[in-house]
Amino acid sequence: MNQKVVVITGASSGIGQALAFAFGRTGAAIVFCGRKADALQTTAQALSAAGITNLPIVADVSVEADMQRLMADAVGRFGRIDVLINNAGISMRAMFAETDPDVLRKLMDINFMGTVYATRYALPHIQQTKGSIVGISSIAGYRGLPVRTGYSASKFAMNGFLEALRTELLHSGVHVLTACPGFTASNIRFSSLDAHGRTKGDTMRDEGNMMSADECADHILKAVQRRKRELILTTQGKLTVFINKWLPSLADKLVYNTLAKEKDSPLKR
Ligand SMILES: NC(=O)c1ccc[n+]([C@@H]2O[C@H](COP(=O)([O-])OP(=O)(O)OC[C@H]3O[C@@H](n4cnc5c(N)ncnc54)[C@H](O)[C@@H]3O)[C@@H](O)[C@H]2O)c1
After folding, report:
1. What stretches of 79-205 show up as alpha helix (H) in DSSP?
2. How far apart, in whole angstroms, are the C-alpha atoms of residue 198 and residue 192?
3. Is domain 5-235 in CATH 3.30.365.10, yes or no?
4. Is the pLDDT assigned to residue 269 strictly greater than 90?
5. Cβ distance 207 to 110 under 8 Å?
6. Whether pTM exceeds 0.90
7. ipTM of the complex model
8. Does residue 26 have its Cβ closer than 6 Å to ligand 1?
9. For position 121, what pLDDT does the model report?
10. Residues marked as catalytic
11. What residue owns the CA closest to ligand 1's atom 23?
């Protein structure tokens, strides 16, 4: 990745921030965005202290003009884009029957349309460098998860979009990776939306028992370097995808029973 330019959305925390360090340590310049200037600056200073060239840009992935500006600024400063990592995302925890449809719309706007906008404006530059487009999807993009209908829908949409795009670009030299982490310690559960779109502010799982964001980022870096098409992480994640494919009705029961054990689960035990 030496001398390459990597654009990462939502990189002021969690997996995105870990990706900024992982790619930056290989010699890449990191262009990254988020909605909060102070959080971006904190990450920018830490990257600079580690000797990583970086450019923080305040931008919201759900705003098309912001994604156009992000890519223009990246090219304006560094002259090229080699890798786009569509990482920014939010989640939800609420039963569908009680959930305001605006919550699902917001998840689609950020997780799916954010990926569409960023990819739309990065693609012409990545076609020139024959680089990579990466989507940080989820196991929830292979297997629908109860209490997260909007999250699963947005990640299924991402997976379909990336698969179709990969096929369109088959002879272009552009690499497309769908990366699906399993449970990874981060802010995602704290920032999840409830049925009315309010932030939950807590986690319902033991964050200490999960894959770390750094480990997750290392796997994703290797998958980009090897130009893999798909990455499914964690043993639990791999098992879920396998059982869902071959024994789907067993998967219904296992997924229900597993998620019913979560601290604040509305599912009956
Ligand atoms: N942590 C997990 O267990 C897990 C599992 C599978 C997939 N993922 C995916 O990994 C990605 C990163 O999440 P994370 O776990 O590091 O959580 P996180 O909350 O730490 O990181 C998400 C980042 O996206 C940013 N973001 C949210 N909305 C945005 C917007 N509209 N515009 C710009 N930035 C925005 C947030 O500010 C944050 O920095 C997400 O797409 C998530 O769905 C996470």
Report:
1. 101-107, 114-129, 149-168
2. 8
3. no
4. no
5. no
6. yes
7. 0.99
8. no
9. 98
10. 151
11. 10
